[in-house]
Write a structure and sequence with these properties.
The protein is α+β, with helices and mostly antiparallel strands and about 850 residues long. It has 38 helices and 14 strands. Strand 7 and strand 8 form a beta hairpin. It starts with a strand and ends with a helix.
C-alpha cells in the first residue's frame, strides 16, 4: 500500500520513476496508473493544462515523505516499445514492395496491433479480475465490432464503444498505414502541447501508450519545458532526454550552448516512426540509414519522404510545425496528396488517385494497362537477379549491423564472465558468417571477403574491423573464427586493422592501460553519441579503474541504444553493485535474467545484491532457481551456505559447504570460492585453490588479493605476499588498497626505504576510506618501531599518529582493531595512543 493506493504490479520503469497498476480505495476501488518518484518535477502542472485525446490526463497528485505520486487513468499496459518487441517482424517488414501491397486487399496490420494490445492486457487479468475490451475483427473494410464483457464501472477502465474512431482507423489497414495514423495522432498532440508553450523533450516508444482501442497517448512529461514567447529555448543538460531519440541540436546542448525548440520534438517523432517501420534507429551519417523505404520495401516513397523530412539535421529543413507533419501523415493515411511537400513518386500519385476514384480507375483502357504491364515485365526480367542479389546483401548487412554491438559487448565481458565462452564463440561465428565471400575474385584460393561499397557505411566497416581485430587477440579460441585468417575490406590488406583512432583504445585496453584509453573514448563518444562500441568500451574502462558512477552512465547509454541486450544490464548491475547501489543492481540482474533466461549467473549476482540488502530468504530463492536449472556450482552452494548460516540453519549451511567442495571448479571464481570455504580450517589448501584460480585467469585481481592476504596474515610469509602485492599494483596501479598492502608488507620485512616510498605515494592519493588511513598508520608504526635514528623515529611517529587520528576520527570502530593488531604495537606502547582512545570514548559517551 502507498497511501490510499494498493499497488498491484509494475506497468513500467524509467530512469527516475516507476509506474504501478494500483487500486484507489478512496474512490470506489478504481484501477489507476500511479507514477511514483523521488523527484518533484513540473510534470503534473504540464499535464493539468493539457486536455487532448492523445495525451494521458492526470487525476491528482499525492506525496508521502520524499516520495511523490501522480495518479492517472489506467488506459492500458502497452507502449510502442512493447509493440516493437512483440509485433512479429513479418508484420512490419515485408519482402513485397509497397506497390504490390497497395494492390492487395485484406492485409490487416492494424488489426494485428489491436490483437497485440488485447493479448498484453490479458496479462493484467492475472493480477486483478478485470475483463479487457474484446474486439471481433470483421472482414468489412470500414467496420469493427466489439464484445462488451461487462467491465465493472468501479474498475475505472476506459471501455471503447463499438464505434471507436481509433479502432475503426486501425482496423482493416496495413501496418504502414496504421503507423501513419498513429503518427498523425501524436503529431496532433504535439501541436496542441506546442501551442500551449510546452515542449515534450523526450519522445520515444516507451513514452507512447496505446490505449485499449489503439488510441496512442503521450506519456511522461517529466523533462518537458516551457518555451519562450518566440517558441525557442536555450536548453542545457538539466532538462534531460533519451540520446537515441534526441535531435542533433538537443545532443549538442549537452556539450555547448545550442538553441532547441519544438522542432526537436518533430525530429524525435520521426525517429520513432522510422523505428516502427524498420525495426532500428536511423543513422544521420548514412543516407541509406535515414531512408526507411530502402530498409523496408513496404514503405512507400511518400511515407519515406515524410519521415526523412522529420529527420533533417538542420531544424530549418524539417517540418516547421507539428501541424504540418500531422497534415501530411493524415493525407498519406487517406491516400491523399501530400500538403506540405511534393509527391516524390508519380506511380504512387497514380495509386492514390485510383484509391480515391475506384470507378474511374477501373475503366482505364485495357490497351494502356497491357502496355504498362509489358514494360514492367521487361524491366523486371532485366533487374530481377541484380535486385535479388543486392537484397540478400542488404539483409546480411542489416543483420550484421544489429549483431555487432552485442558481439563486441560479450567478447569484452569474457574476463568477468568466463561462462560466456561457448556462447561468445557461437555468436562470433554467426556474425562473421554474415559477410562470407559472395564476390570473391575468381580463381583466388583464399576467398577474400569483400564488403560492397554503397551498402556498408564507414561506421559499420569500422565496427566490423574492431570486432575482427579484437577477436584475433583472444588466445582461448579453439577454432578459427575468421576463414583463412582474412577479413579484407579493401582488397589488398590481409589483416583486419581498424583505423588508428579506433584501434588505439583497443590496444590500451589490451595492455590494461584503462586510464589512458578513457580520454580517447570520451572524445569518440562526444563526436558520435550513438557509437555503441565506444560507450561500451568506456564503461569497461571506468569499471576497471573503479569509477563506478561513470561506468553506470556509459552502460545506461548502451541500454538506451540497444534495449534488449542482456549483457548491458548485467554489466551495469556489476557497476551498481560495486558502487553499493544494491537495489538498482538487483533490478538490473533481474532484467538480464528476463532477457537471457539461461544466464543463471545473473541469478547468483542478484542473490549477492539481495544479501547486501538483508533480504536473505529472497536471495536463497534465487539460488534455488539456479540450482533447479542445473547451475549447481561452487559459488552458488557457498553463497547459499553463508545465507543458511546467517539465518541460523547450521545443518543446511554445512550441507551446502560440503556440496560446494564436491563440485568441480570451472572458472577462477569457483576456485576462489572453494578456497574461501577452506580458508579458516586449512589455509594451505586454500592457497592451492587460489593458485588454481590464477592458472584459470592469470590477471585475476581477486585471486592475487587472497594470496597476498593468506601469505601475510596466516602463513607469515611476507616475501610471497609481496610478490602478489607487486602483481596487483601492475594490474591496477590506480588502486590504493594494493599499494597500502605492499607498504605494510615492506615495513614488516624491515625494507624501510621501499615502505617509505609506498607510504609517501599513498599520501598523494587523497585517501578517504578509514581503513586505508589506518593501513598507512600501521606502516609508519612499524617503521617507527624499527627506526635507528632519532630524527627518523620522530618523523615516523608524527606520521603514524596523524594517520591513526584521521582514521579513528572518521570511523571510531577502528580503535577496537588497533587494540590487538601487532602492526601498531609500537603505537600502543606510547602514552598518546591511550589519550586518543580516551578521547574517542569520551565522544561516544557525550550526549548529542
Amino acid at each position: 500500500m502507498w497511501g490510499e493506493f494498493e499497488l498491484l504490479g509494475i506497468l513500467g520503469t524509467g530512469a527516475f520513476a516507476k509506474v504501478y497498476l494500483a487500486r484507489q480505495h478512496g474512490l470506489a476501488g478504481r484501477l489507476v496508473a500511479l507514477k511514483l518518484t523521488f523527484r518533484q518535477t513540473h510534470e503534473s502542472q504540464w499535464l493539468a493544462t493539457l486536455q487532448h485525446s492523445a495525451i494521458v490526463p492526470i487525476y491528482s497528485t499525492h506525496s508521502s515523505g520524499q516520495v511523490y505520486g501522480i495518479c492517472m487513468p489506467f488506459l492500458g499496459n502497452t507502449t510502442l516499445a512493447d509493440l516493437l518487441r512483440e509485433t512479429p517482424r513479418s508484420a512490419t517488414i515485408s519482402s513485397n514492395s509497397w506497390w504490390s501491397r497497395s494492390r492487395r486487399k485484406g492485409h490487416h496490420g492494424g488489426s494485428s496491433l489491436l490483437s497485440t494490445i488485447q493479448q498484453r492486457h490479458e496479462q493484467i487479468d492475472t493480477i486483478v479480475n478485470t475483463v479487457a475490451p474484446q474486439f471481433r475483427i470483421t472482414t468489412s473494410e470500414d467496420s469493427i465490432s466489439q464484445v462488451d464483457e461487462g467491465i465493472p464501472a468501479s474498475l475505472g477502465i476506459s471501455n471503447p464503444s463499438a464505434n471507436s474512431l481509433a479502432a475503426q482507423s486501425l482496423n482493416q489497414c496495413d501496418y504502414v498505414r496504421a503507423i501513419c495514423w498513429i503518427g498523425s495522432q501524436l503529431a496532433d498532440a504535439l501541436s496542441y502541447a506546442h501551442r500551449n508553450g510546452i515542449v515534450h523533450s523526450d519522445i520515444k516508444p516507451a513514452n507512447v501508450l496505446l490505449a485499449f482501442d489503439g488510441q496512442p497517448r503521450l506519456l511522461d512529461f517529466n523533462v518537458a519545458y516551457k518555451s519562450s514567447s518566440d517558441g525557442t529555448v536555450s536548453k542545457d543538460l538539466s532538462l534531460g532526454g533519451t540520446i537515441p531519440y534526441m535531435s542533433p541540436e538537443h545532443r549538442q546542448a549537452f556539450h555547448q550552448s545550442a538553441v532547441v525548440d519544438a522542432r526537436s520534438d518533430i525530429y524525435s517523432l520521426g525517429v520513432v516512426l522510422f523505428e516502427l517501420l524498420t525495426g532500428r534507429l536511423p543513422d544521420e551519417k548514412s543516407v541509406r540509414q535515414t531512408n526507411p523505404s530502402l530498409l523496408n520495401s513496404s514503405v512507400s516513397p511518400a511515407t519515406s519522404a515524410i519521415i526523412r523530412k522529420c529527420l533533417e539535421t538542420e531544424p530549418s529543413a524539417r517540418y516547421q510545425s507539428a501541424d504540418a507533419l500531422r497534415d501530411d501523415l493524415t493525407a498519406q493515411y487517406h491516400h491523399a496528396t501530400l500538403v506540405h511537400q511534393p509527391e516524390p513518386s508519380l506511380l504512387e500519385s497514380l495509386s492514390k488517385w485510383s484509391y480515391r476514384h475506384p470507378r474511374l480507375s477501373s475503366s482505364i483502357s485495357v490497351v494502356s494497362l497491357s502496355s504498362l504491364l509489358v514494360v514492367f515485365l521487361i524491366l523486371g526480367v532485366v533487374v530481377r537477379q541484380v535486385a535479388l542479389d543486392r537484397a540478400d546483401w542488404v539483409h546480411r548487412i542489416d543483420l550484421l549491423r544489429q549483431r555487432i554491438p552485442n558481439s563486441m559487448a560479450m567478447l569484452t565481458s569474457l574476463e568477468a564472465v568466463p561462462e560466456l565462452e561457448a556462447e561468445v564463440l557461437a555468436d562470433l561465428q554467426k556474425s562473421f558468417g554474415l559477410v562470407e565471400a559472395r564476390n570473391a575474385v575468381p580463381n583466388e584460393a583464399d576467398h577474400r571477403w569483400v564488403l560492397q561499397d554503397g551498402i556498408v557505411d564507414n561506421a559499420l566497416r569500422s565496427e566490423l574491423q574492431q570486432l575482427a581485430w579484437l577477436t584475433t587477440q583472444y588466445s582461448w579460441l579453439k577454432s578459427p573464427i575468421l576463414p583463412n585468417g582474412i577479413l579484407d575490406v579493401s582488397g589488398t590488406n590481409p589483416e583486419p586493422k581498424p583505423d588508428e583512432s579506433n584501434r588505439r583504445p583497443l590496444i590500451l585496453i589490451q595492455e590494461r592501460k584503462f586510464g589512458d584509453a578513457i580520454p580517447l573514448l570520451k572524445r569518440r563518444t562526444a563526436e558520435n553519441p550513438r557509437d555503441y562500441v565506444g560507450w561500451w568500451l568506456l564503461g569497461d574502462c571506468c569499471q576497471a579503474i573503479q569509477d563506478f558512477e561513470n561506468a553506470q552512465q556509459s552502460y545506461t547509454v548502451c541500454i538506451a541504444l540497444q534495449p534488449t541486450t542482456a549483457i548491458a544490464y548485467f554489466n551495469r548491475g556489476m557497476a551498481r553493485f560495486s558502487a553499493l547501489h544494491f537495489e538498482l543492481a538487483a533490478d538490473d540482474y533481474e532484467q538480464a535474467c528476463s532477457l537471457a533466461p539461461t544466464w543463471h549467473w545473473s541469478r547468483l549476482n542478484r542473490a549477492l545484491s539481495l544479501q547486501r540488502l538483508g533480504r536473505l530468504e529472497e536471495a536463497i530463492s534465487e539460488l534455488d532457481k539456479a540450482i533447479e536449472k542445473g547451475y549447481a556450482t561452487v559459488s552458488v552452494y557457498r553463497l547459499r551456505g553463508e545465507l543458511q548460516a546467517a539465518l541460523g540453519d547450521a545443518d543446511g549451511a554445512k550441507l551446502d559447504f560440503s556440496s560446494a567442495l564436491q563440485c568441480e571448479p570451472k572458472t577462477d571464481q569457483h576456485w576462489i570460492d572453494r578456497g574461501l570455504i577452506q580458508l579458516s580450517s586449512n589455509p594451505r589448501k586454500a592457497v592451492e585453490d587460489f593458485e588454481n584460480a590464477l592458472k584459470a585467469s592469470p590477471n585475476s585481481i581477486d585471486a592475487h588479493q587472497k594470496l597476498a592476504y593468506v601469505y601475510s596474515e596466516l602463513l607469515q610469509q611476507p616475501d610471497k605476499s609481496l610478490d602478489h602485492s607487486n602483481r596487483l599494483i601492475e594490474l591496477a596501479p590506480w588502486q590504493p588498497t594494493h599499494l597500502a598492502g605492499r607498504a605494510v608488507s615492506h615495513a614488516r620485512s624491515k625494507r624501510t626505504q621501499e615502505a617509505l616510498n609506498d607510504l609517501r605515494l599513498l599520501e598523494t592519493m587523497r585517501l578517504q576510506e578509514p581503513i586505508l588511513m589506518y593501513q598507512v598508520a600501521c606502516g609508519y608504526s612499524l617503521l617507527a618501531g624499527n627506526a635507528s635514528l632519532e630524527q627518523d623515529l620522530l618523523d615516523f611517529s608524527k606520521s603514524a599518529f596523524r594517520w591513526y587520528t584521521m582514521a579513528v576520527g572518521t570511523d571510531p570502530s577502528i580503535v577496537a582493531i588497533a587494540m590487538t593488531d601487532p602492526d601498531v604495537q609500537w603505537m600502543r606502547e606510547q602514552v598518546r595512543f591511550q589519550d586518543i582512545a580516551n578521547a574517542i570514548q569520551t565522544l561516544k559517551l557525550s550526549p548529542p
